[in-house]
Amino acid sequence: MSDPKPVDTKTLLEWSARYHTPNYGRAPICLVRGDGVRVWDSDGREYLDFAAGIAVAALGHCHPTITGAIREAAATLLHVSNLYHTAPQIHLAKLLCEHSFADRVFFCNSGAEANEAALKLARKYAKERLASDRFEIIATRDSFHGRTLATVTATGQEKYQHGFEPLVPGFKHVPYNDLRAMERALDNRTAAIIVEPIQGEGGVHVPDADYLPGLRKLCDQSGALLILDEVQTGLGRTGKLWGYQHAGVEPDIMTLAKALANGVPMGAMLAREEVARALTPGTHASTFGGTPFVASVALATLTTILGEKIPERAARTGAYLMERLLALARQRPVVRAVRGRGLLIGLELSRPAGPIVDACRDAGLLVLTAGERVLRLAPPLIVDERDCDRALATIDAMLARSTS
């Protein structure tokens, strides 16, 4: 058994290098504690967290309501499987449906699993309701939909697919925000279109106002389903509860994860009644999906997001942050563009963003990349203007240093 006594940071990082699979490029710090929009490492150093676990900790770290829900749920019932009904899962499904387009919910453990379920549902629905040879999925270039074999195939970035060929057949990719390309790709084998309302990992790309309505029209005309991957954009991140609400359209299927349980692993696939009926007993399942423990935490998260009007807060703070980033960009030629919505913002740079991320971390600010040259900001949705000002000052200083 491992020694339970505390060990120094150097030893921890040595053990990490020795015992973990080498598939992560981890920063050379070990985080041990969080509170609100701040985290601390094993050496006691404080960081302002504008990464939020990659847009996960929407309510910040150790939110008292979420912590209370975790404690209560852990002392009540952790797991019984989906062979039985559990009240937290039922209440959560009801709340999600009441506050979205959806009629039905399937629970799982991650965004990749949610997208996997969506792809399976789309194929099954198309084969049963439309034609036996309707199975193709159209996705977009620069998208990101997960790391399973099917979702990495749907992902429109070759760097995530390299070495895992042959990929799953039946997928096409077209440029994002290009309705004509999507229309040309549609044919009598198309089962569904899957897109992100805003591309996150691909560079924080916000589509034109007519893009999602145009996709909705194409799907209505062709019979294909519209799947919206809201794993990163859902739960208030963009300034509305769901990203699709900015476009005034509704999908047939939507996928969620990340912020759904504020850090406890959970995913969900939501669907319209007609579509969801294709998932008959035994066609899809998840042992851990929507356990009473995680459903209780997600229920507390969603209730807090709704009750405290967190999307509206994200819209206000995001507008404040965006305005000041645009002003910064006018002073720093290294910033080529600022784009985003709510508190999902990207700064496209004229040089690789990785060194800026490292410099910000050394200065006490955690930020992300979104592709090679985009600096991504995705702070907890409870962040205030004072912390935004501190983050802006750090980013400005690091950009200035990088060009000196």
What is the assigned CATH homologous superfamily of the largest domain? Type I PLP-dependent aspartate aminotransferase-like (Major domain)
How many alpha or pi helices? 14
Helical percentage:
25-40%
Distance between the termini: 51 Å
Q: Examine the coordinates and then state which fold CATH places here, giving the name of the CATH topology of the largest domain.
A: Aspartate Aminotransferase, domain 2
Rg from Cα: 21 Å
What does the overall shape look like?
A: globular
What amount of the residues lies in strands?
A: 15-25%
In round numbers, the mean pLDDT is 97
How many domains is the backbone divided into? 2
Order of helices and strands: HEEEHHHEHEHHEHEHEEEHHHEEHEEEH
As laid out across the biggest beta sheet, the strand order is 4-10-9-8-7-5-6
* CATH class division of the largest domain: Alpha Beta
Q: What structural class should be given to the helix and strand makeup?
A: alpha/beta
Sheet having the most strands = 7 strands, mixed
The appropriate CATH architecture of the largest domain is 3-Layer(aba) Sandwich
Number of strands: 15
Low-confidence stretches: none
